[in-house]
User: Which sequence fits this backbone?
């Protein structure tokens, strides 16, 4: 296994002729990041932000124009993929259709001079954890397998080879929801059991949180932020990260700091002292998560919200009330027994949970910080 380090990686793609200038900047822009030995980092971001390009550059399938890539302090920037010892699994992973498992894996074990006992033990262990049956891993021609089996076999064969680095690009997004859930649990177990350093690309936030020790958020070829879920949730670097992480997303309202008070949603609310000191006077944006509101059944002095919809999540024992504030959709966490008859509520931000951003810029001016549990 190996830790991976990217230093100022930049990759320019020449856009195909006829690509409009408005097309997002492609490739990778000055990406630096370190992945510890045995760590799993999830990569999330909108389609076209460079997730697959990042994996290809780490694997050596594409070369960076600038910057360095190190595996355990060894510079692999110009090394061919085979020399790097990477395992890759893609969404549309197609195993060589007529190759049998035994051929591929036999070669691997021969090179490593493993005893037949070691070989069999390792294969059985992996097959069992992936729930695919030893025979599938070894013998059957892959073109007779179902999509789900193919993907599991592909992942298991990759893991069994003990790659230095494991790169997975939306590996299970083609599977149905139920199979996806069980497969991701098995993948995670295997990665931790064998201590494999992994980059895991997904567009699914829940999957990213589940798989990653840390999550890297990308946009337009740039790394916006990397951190644990709590760090991204409570300490987002900017509005993009703040609104990407969390469901329903952070509510963002135009506001103004004026004379130690906050003008927002048609009301003027007194600000606590430390916020008055920390925030610039004038226009800015307030962010409040669905759970960050104090809800008053009588609007009183709070922001008035007309409720348009209540979504009840019975298994979570909670509900979300949605409505509009100044033309912006706002979601508020309420108790499951929130009365159906209530059509108007008053909202006050819990200031300890409030986020602030500039009126125009994206950078966070103030975030709640990760709460201390004990
Ligand atoms: P993601 O995996 O996040 O959806 P990609 O890494 O596939 O994004 O693509 C990032 C950007 O680079 C996109 O704008 C895409 O159009 C562009 N791109 C990807 N591969 C090439 C290529 N071979 N030539 C030119 N542009 C490319
Ligand atoms: Mg992709």
Assistant:
């Amino acid at each position: 296994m190996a830790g991976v380090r990217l230093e100022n990686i930049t990759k320019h793609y020449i856009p195909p002729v006829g690509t409009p200038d408005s097309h997002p900047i492609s490739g990778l822009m000055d990406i630096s990041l370190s992945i510890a030995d045995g760590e799993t980092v999830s990569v999330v971001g909108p389609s076209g932000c460079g997730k697959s390009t990042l994996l290809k550059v780490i694997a050596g399938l594409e070369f960076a124009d600038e910057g360095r890539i190190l595996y355990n302090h060894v510079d692999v920037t110009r090394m061919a993929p085979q020399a790097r010892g990477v395992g890759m699994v893609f969404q549309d992973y197609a195993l060589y259709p007529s190759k049998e498992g035994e051929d591929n894996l036999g070669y691997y074990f021969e090179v490593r001079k493993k005893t037949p006992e070691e070989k069999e033990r390792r294969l059985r262990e992996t097959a069992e954890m992936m729930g695919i049956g030893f025979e599938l891993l070894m013998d059957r021609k892959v073109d007779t397998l179902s999509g789900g089996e193919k993907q599991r076999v592909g992942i298991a064969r990759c893991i069994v080879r003990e790659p230095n680095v494991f790169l997975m690009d939306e590996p299970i997004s083609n599977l149905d929801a139920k199979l996806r859930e069980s497969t991701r649990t098995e993948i995670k177990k295997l990665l931790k059991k064998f201590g494999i350093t992994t980059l895991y690309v997904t567009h699914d936030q829940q999957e990213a949180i589940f798989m990653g020790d840390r999550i890297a958020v990308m946009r337009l070829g740039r790394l916006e932020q990397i951190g644990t879920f709590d760090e991204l949730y409570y300490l987002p670097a900017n509005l993009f990260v703040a609104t990407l992480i969390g469901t329903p997303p952070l509510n963002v309202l135009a506001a103004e700091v004026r004379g130690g008070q906050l003008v927002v949603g048609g009301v003027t609310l007194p600000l606590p002292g430390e916020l008055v000191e920390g925030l610039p006077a004038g226009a800015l944006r307030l962010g409040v998560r669905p759970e960050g509101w104090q809800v008053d059944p009588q609007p009183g002095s709070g922001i008035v919200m007309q409720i348009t919809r209540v979504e009840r999540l019975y298994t979570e024992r909670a509900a979300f009330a949605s409505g509009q504030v100044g033309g912006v959709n706002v979601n508020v966490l309420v108790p499951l027994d929130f009365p159906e008859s209530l059509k108007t509520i008053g909202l006050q931000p819990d200031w300890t949970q409030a986020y602030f951003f500039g009126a125009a810029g994206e950078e966070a001016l103030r975030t709640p910080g990760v709460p201390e549990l004990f």
Notes: The chain has a mean pLDDT of 88.
